[in-house]
Specification:
Among the domains are: 49 residues, no CATH class; 184 residues, Rossmann fold. The chain is built from 15 helices and 19 strands. Helix 4 packs across helix 15.
Amino acid sequence: MKKLIFPVFVLIITAVLAEVTLRVLTKRDKHIDYLFGKKSYFLPPFHVPQQVPVVDTTTWHKYNVYDADLGWSIGKLGAQPPYYSNHAGYRCSQLEYDSLRNKQMPYPELSRAYDLVCLGNSFTHGDEVAYEDTWPYRLQQRTGLRVLNLGVGGYGIDQAWLRYEKEKQQTKLIILGMVAGDLDRARSQIYNLTVGGLKTKPMYVPGNGALQVVNQPTLHGEELLREFSKAEASEFLLRERNGNILFNKGWHTNFYLVRAARAFTVWQQHRQPVYRTAGDDLTLCVNLLAEANHQAEQQQARFVVLLLDNLNTFIDYDKLENPWGLFIQKLEEQGIEYWYYGDQFYKQFKTNPDAVINKGLVHYTPQANDAVAEFVEARLNVIKMED
């Protein structure tokens, strides 16, 4: 018995020192604790936010607005230079915006039919560049086709498709421009959850043999705060990946050693992007794209997934010959058409990064957007030849 006393004593002292060290090295930002103060080392469980942003539900004369069906969208006649929107909530040029602002209501009726509709996130929307330098606009100029840009910053593939369904525009071709992270966004109801985000969005989940949408209308304000207060009893929060860990507040979570140990599994999963990780998340995302493809066919429209690289996939290219390989395989298995630019942007980025990504920022330069438009134009020419 005496032989056990010393090792047990050492173990206890070590655990106490480790507990104290973890507490000293942990910093809280908003409602989340971070080991070493680094956002990638979040410690579950997350706390209840002291307050949540007040959501303005008006939709006119603001560029970024709350949308009960989508989480957020583009407002009507909004301005946030260099971004401007028309009276339908579609991105437009400053010239068109100024013209509309000087008109008296009613505003001119817009077309409900386009040659092609572009869906997606900030890369389709054209963040960091003027309207005339977005790839959908450059494509319209190159081809003479009527192109509608439905891209919205921060969207996952789920919101992109839901916006298309909501707008009900007539078209023969739907192009979903996506970066790899758009799949990860589709697997959460809270934008930037692990870095303290409190903006919610709809999400597809499996149910009754088909995909169904949850969190519509999207939670905000006091309703969202109540869900955080419920912690692991919240059905809403438990839908999140590892929600049973991120929001479980049992007595054992008072110990930072336990919190850190439980966090390892979550950290590991969050560092594995959905697009190159076989599993349920990738399967659900591909099934969602397959459903979008099926619905497009019913509308007699062609559905295409346009794979766009960004800084994240450029990093993956450093380690893998084709980081998109698994995702492309899954698309092919489902018969989903995709257009892939290959590693051309990556090669150009390695030699002249400022030609691809705006210097000091994260989105495409006008030159890169024009290259995307040129690539899509070439694919459209192939379609013409096939027809």
